[in-house]
Amino acid sequence: MPEAYDPNQVAKDAIAPTGAGGAMDLAMSEAETLEKTPGGPGGTGPQEKARSLWTDAWQQLRRNPVFIISSLLIVFLVLIAIWPSLIASGDPNACQLSQANKGSGPGHPFGTDQQGCDVYTRTVYGARASIAVGICATLGVAILGSLMGGLAGFFGGWWDGLLSRLADVFFAIPVVLGGLVFLSVVVSDTIWPVVGFMVLLGWPQISRIARGSVITAKQNDYVQAARALGASNSRMLLRHVAPNAVAPVIVVATIALGTYIALEATLSFLGVGLRPPTVSWGIDISNASQVIRNYPSQLLWPAGALSITVLAFIMLGDAVRDALDPKLR
């Protein structure tokens, strides 16, 4: 007959290893596990710290040739915008009518324009105003748009509806037409009216990006946990939501910087942007377009510099977007 089932004996067998050999085997198994554990006595060292989104993005950007080329080009352009005398020793407004419309030669590698001004010197000095307008406009748009969109996305309700409708009003204004009207009324020899106009019509785009990013970030578990622990709205917004919602804003702002440089040149070409004696690529392109059939080189150099600058910032924005978006890796 089969042996009777004893539940007490089964419990004893499960609790205590059978004999001294079983206890020794159990101890040796635990020691081997400890040795193989990273950070243990025989392990391979401490575990690698988890890398953040910014660390991963920087690692990818360092290996991206598009980012390296565009960054070096932008550094060079910013450098000559700050110190144009490094590569151009002349005065961009020093013109001699007797030297008008001359081809390239000694002292004038790019030739001269209709007023006898050195095209090379004006092309180098034109980077200062164009890049300054692009950077200042981008900073203003990013700050104002992020503030408006972040508040609308975080608080929601009537505040979200008000800011969204306000953004729709500015979205409905055509940029070029708005520039013709606004800048024809506000006349100044500085870059600030142009910068103010770009910020006025450019913030709704960043606002929508920031609003959607904040709405997505505030639904994460860590934000809800902070809210449950009694964190204030300002602490949650600045410490938890904003750092995790700023990446799309940086990408869009980087790409938009090149767009604002091109917009400044367009407005200056139409005669409502920057005005002489300010040296700008848009002004030089406008002047050269009048004699493009006879002297095309006068248009080629400022237009080429403008195109290279805009392309460099767009390439930089594309590289940053690929690095910050995990779905594109």
From TrEMBL:
Q: Where is the ABC transmembrane type-1 domain?
A: 127-317
Where does the UniProt entry say this protein principally localizes?
A: membrane
Lineage: superkingdom: Bacteria
Query: Which residue spans traverse the membrane?
Result: 66-88, 131-159, 171-201, 245-263, 299-320
- Enumerate the PROSITE patterns for this protein: ABC_TM1
Q: Tell me its family.
A: Belongs to the binding-protein-dependent transport system permease family.
Q: What's the protein called, per UniProt?
A: Oligopeptide transport system permease protein
Q: Which organism is it from?
A: Streptomyces indicus
Q: What broad taxonomic lineage does this protein's source fall under?
A: Bacteria, Bacillati, Actinomycetota, Actinomycetes, Kitasatosporales
